[in-house]
Amino acid sequence: MTAIVSLVGVTKGYVRGNQRVEVLRNVDFQVQAGEFVVLMGPSGSGKTTLLNLMGGLNKADAGEVIVDGANLNDLSPNQLADWRAKHLGFVFQFYYLLPALSAERNVEVALFLTRLSAAERRRRVAAALDLVGLRERARHKPGELSGGQQQRVAIARAIVADPTLLICDEPTGDLDREASASILELLQLLNRRHGKTIAMVTHDPWAAEYASRQVHLDKGSLAIAPGARV
Amino acid sequence: MATWRQGVVLMRMDLTGWRARVGTSIVIVLGMACVTGVLASTLANRAGLIRMYDATGDASRVMIMAAKSPSEFNANILPSQVGTILNAPGLAKGSKGETLGDAEIRFRVLPPPGASWRPISVEGIGAEGIALRQNFRLVAGRMFEPGLHELLIGRSAQSVYGLKIGDPILMRGGNWTVVGIFSSGGDVMENGLVADALTVMSGEGISAFGSVLVKLERPSLFEPLKQWLITNPAMAVGAERQSDYYIRTAGQYLGYLNFFSFFVGAIISIGALLGSVNIFNAVVSSRSLEIATFRAIGYRALPVAASVVVEAVALALAGAVAGAGGAWLLFDGRQMVTGMGIYSMSVSAPVIALCAGWAVTLCLLGSAAPALRAARLPVSDALRSS
Amino acid sequence: MKSLVLVWAALWRKPSATLLTAGATTAAFMLFGLMIGLYDAKMQMLNAARPDQIFVLPRYYPQPFYGMPIAMAGEIERVDGVAAVGSLNNVNSSQRGPGDWIVLVNEGMRDSRPDAPVTPAQWKLLFSTPTSVLVSRDLAKKFDLKPGDSFPVTTLREEGSTTYEFQVQAVVPEDPQWGQGMIWGNQKYLDNTAPLPMRNKANIFWISIKDAARATEISRAIDLRFANSPTPTYSIPVKADRQTQVSLNINQIGVMLGVAGAGLFMVLFLVANAVARSVHERLPEFAVLHTLGFRESRLRRLVILEAAFPCVLGAMVGTALAGILMTVPARKLSYNLSLLLAPTLSSVVLAWAIAASILLALLSSVLPLLKLKRTHVADVLAGR
Q1: What does the alpha-carbon distance between residue B151 and residue B178 come to, in Å, rounded to a whole number?
Q2: Contact yes or no for A78 and C295 at CB 8 A
Q3: Segment B149-184, tens digit of pLDDT
Q4: Which of A19, B3, B372, C7 has the greatest CB tally within 10 Å of its CB?
Q5: Which chain C residues contact residue B42 at CB under 8 A?
């Protein structure tokens, strides 16, 4: 297996008020292609920061972040944007769908940056919605869907452009157990059957069980789960 | 707690909490400032014109003109009629016992080349012409000499036409010379030239006067004078208070100015009204948790609604002050040159009051629906969604 | 085009707020259209004014005044440099309607107004019968007049009232020098039928001269010629008259442009506030678009387009409403208003409205864009 994500000696801090808070300290971390890795840890341990570094939303203060061969520290904001469009899919706790657009239009937004024809975009959107089991609700607006369904639309939006890496930040944090289970099963399906590499943050040990590997973060450093690889 | 006390508490919190909504508050204040600024600057035009007419005649000054074509430009009053008119009852007397009445004529000439192509009026006045105009004073040069081709120019006219002492004015029979500059309190006469009536009439070949200006002992004697003139059918003259005459002759223009002001004011107000509804809606939305909390702890709906309206009124007044103040800075005292004369725009107290009333009304209308929404806000929903 | 889907979604997130903002912008642009239209009409008149024409008015009006003797035209023609002399006369209509616009002209006008939008055939028609009138397009529309129609005009004079019946011979284009519509009749009608003292008179002489550079000199020469006559005159070059009007009315023009500007200034803040609020509320959406690979420039474009929608829609609808208002038939307006200088909805007004709407959109996006620039995507997504 080849590493699709490679963080080497990464340090990241923020300035809060007059104080600098170091969130990640000299972290080395890899995600292999086809892995479903889950990042766990208490609040403030740096798991979302790590995810954002992998997604190019933040830049490391020190160290290297290499995703699919690209050193994210070397990319300009525009290059990063283009890179995200091609290689990444994001799923968030609060779905962040555009309320005025139908489910299919919300998914299609991710394809607006491609040169695909309208027909091709429609075909891919239909396929993505089919995959997340929402083909019949394609014309519904977010307000007409349940939380679980909205998150499925968000997942369809994240995968429709066929990204290399799927980054999920607490995707089940706003859902009940039943809806959470179906979302996690969907992610597992995407990983196992469709080969998607997934990095997910959660603080729920039950949700973490769906992943192929668990990584624990504590006070900005990695604490390896018993029996797991880093 | 009594409703009014709840209202006071909420209003005080509103007014002190405006800092949290400084952006929207500024937008409302600026919007109202634009509305009142537009209204004040357009109304200032009309107010300035009326002020000029008011300066022209107090209620005791009356113009007597031909009944059929009552205009001072129409030379219709024969010299033989003047003596009879000055014998009318109720006319005031001067210090030497002379009747305060003056036969006058008005016509237009062109200023010399290079000054202006706008015709300027010449007012021919008689012996009592100055005594009848208490605000008249010479500000430069000297008085004209009857019998000589000499003129005075009003200060307003001078600033527009650029004429100075010594400049020639071509009239029938040759050039007349400007020998002095006068002020007459910014009235109509100040818009033009003044000369001796008999000298200009003889020079211009005009055989009749345009009007006889008289002063009444007291304003209430106007009707008896009018009746006395009517009962002399041979005279064929009528009487009109001087200020009324100018307002009548400018009636159409004043109507237009009024229409223009309120038409323009109404259009911009529609814009401001729609904008303010939008903003007050947003204010209510942003305060929904605060409103719901107050309602949950026992505050009634009415004070909640009233607090929204009071905030709107406070912002409207601030906007009105800014708008009328801006109009005052920009336009008050600015000279206007129109077919009706030369006058200064006036952002007067009544204009400012009207603008403030207008702005408050707009904000009341704009805040009514959002205030109602605030009062009807479902408390549990607001608390839950927040 | 694809971005428009997102802009549309943003606009209809809160339809009432979008419509209220667009309504406010429409009102401002309606005002803007009317004011710029009025300004443009003034400027058009100034630009159309001919430097080689002069008009002559009587210096005072001894009563009863019937006009200047038409014989003066011959004397004016003898002044050095004068090319042609035409005469104009009013009918003094006693009722409101087309009669207010009627100006009776003599055959001399054909040569003194060679620039008039009247063809040789139409001039011929006008002078073929005394009752003929030529009506300009705007007034024909205002009063529902077409060739062949006739309308009566009653005049009130000391000598008693007289009713004239005029017949429309042709509808002609607007005369740019006239400014507010015209109805030209045949002076012969008055000369044949009016009470004797009113015949063969002119209220204005309209003169064309051979050399525009001599306009001032010729005006003075005309006034000098009549200075000692029973009818002294004042003569004004047309171009100088219009320029004087514009320069003296500079404060009025200032108020007019100030009003137009105030409306736009007001909506600038309304639109900026609405867009800023919308951007603030949708920061997570922008953050998601960022994660989807939207470049910052594309996000900026979305904000500007969102601001542009109410501005451009308001400019289009507002200018169109102003245009409709400009064409309201005179009889449906108050008398005062119907006599006004009509604003024009020319390409200049449209160009100003479009330019203003774009500027408005750009300016009102500044604050929201700054807000967007200061926002950190990761913070927004983390709910900070």
Answers
A1: 5
A2: yes
A3: 999 999 989 888 888 899 988 787 678 999 999 999
A4: C7
A5: 255, 259
